[in-house]
Specification:
Layout lengths: L2 E4 L2 E4 L5 E6 L7 H6 L10 H11 L2 E6 L9 H11 L2 E3 L1 E3 L9 H4 L2 H13 L11 E6 L6 H17 L3 E5 L5 H10 L7 E3 L8 H9 L3 E4 L10 H13 L6 E3 L20 H12 L4 H6 L3 H6 L5
Helix pairs in contact: 2-3, 5-6
Length: 307
């Protein structure tokens, strides 16, 4: 049986349903980040249930929660929200990017970092038996630092040994190609690699190159006009479909700010992709069966757990 790993256990991929591939339910960045940008603190434990109810009403079934431990991951809150709403929640292990790394990462070896990630996938997170189903690694704006490279190398080892895929953070959409090239050098099957935030850097050539190398990409920028209009992203997606890459793209919104949540009085909310962006893709000429792949078939392949 093909499965994906949630915080509540392994689930048949046939039950994955409509999936948002890169989201956040609860966050607590380092204090110096909060002081500069308090909107990044998404810590009201009552809100995830409310926001997932918005998601389920729009047909949502699975959410990939990409908050690692050093960014405020809260296993009990995620588990509670999943149980109360019926949404499958895939939790993450690993690390975000260099600025947010806890100090010990710099001193840990690749093997030690890999062992930590493997333990969270196979045994449980934060003293619980709730297991991570995806491994996170990330890079900085326009460069991959030595310590970030070390985390990527550890993530590759952990992916090979645990069966979980790697999903990444690309700061403002940069360094995605370099991330894929790095994990390829380390011997990872590129189909186990998912590159996030590519829409923040709406560069057709780079998006195409990542997928030519064999990786998945996530457009998690719809509604964020400060990076790119939805029209520009629709056009990119349609062009990449014409080039034959419809099986390697996914959609999400990466709503890691209070102002993005309806339950905080903001928007667009967790129903934006199913109710607005996917219908727009279809209205603009993308075949419905192709648009369906971005939140159904492709996540089911990309996040499949391979023990």
């Amino acid at each position: 049986m093909k499965v994906f790993r949630t915080i509540s256990g392994d689930v048949n991929v046939e039950q994955m349903g409509f999936t948002l591939s890169h989201e956040h339910l609860i966050t607590r960045p380092p204090n110096y980040i909060i002081n500069k940008d308090p909107d990044l603190l998404v810590d009201d434990v009552t809100k995830p249930v409310k926001e997932l109810e918005v998601f389920t009403k729009a047909g949502g079934k699975t959410l990939v929660e990409m908050t690692p431990r050093d960014y405020g991951r809260n296993v009990p809150v995620m588990l509670d929200a999943s149980q109360k709403t019926g949404v499958h929640v895939i939790a993450t292990t690993g690390y975000l990017k260099g600025d947010y790394f806890p100090k010990e990462v710099e001193h840990m070896t690749v093997a030690q970092l890999a062992d930590y990630m493997i333990g969270e996938v196979l045994e449980g997170m934060d003293g619980t038996d709730c297991k991570a189903g995806v491994i996170k690694a990330g890079s900085s704006y326009n460069y991959i630092s030595p310590v970030e490279e070390k985390v990527f190398k550890a993530a590759v080892i952990a992916s090979k040994k645990s069966g979980a895929p790697i999903s990444t953070h690309c700061q403002v959409g940069t360094m995605g190609v370099e991330q894929v090239e790095l994990v390829l050098r380390e011997g990872l099957d590129p189909s186990r690699m998912i590159v996030g935030h590519v829409g923040e850097n709406p560069d057709y050539y780079l998006h195409k190159k990542m997928m030519r190398l064999g990786a998945y990409i996530i457009y998690d920028t719809p509604s964020k006009v400060k990076y790119a209009t939805d029209q520009l992203q629709v056009d990119l997606i349609k062009k990449l479909v014409e080039d034959g890459f419809e099986d390697q793209m996914m959609l999400s919104c990466d709503m890691g700010r209070r102002k993005y949540w309806k339950s905080y009085g903001g928007g667009p909310g967790f129903d934006y992709i199913p109710l607005k962006f996917v219908p727009r893709l279809i209205d603009e000429g993308l075949p419905e069966d192709v648009a369906h792949k971005f939140n159904f078939e492709n996540p089911a392949k990309a996040f499949q757990f391979l023990p």
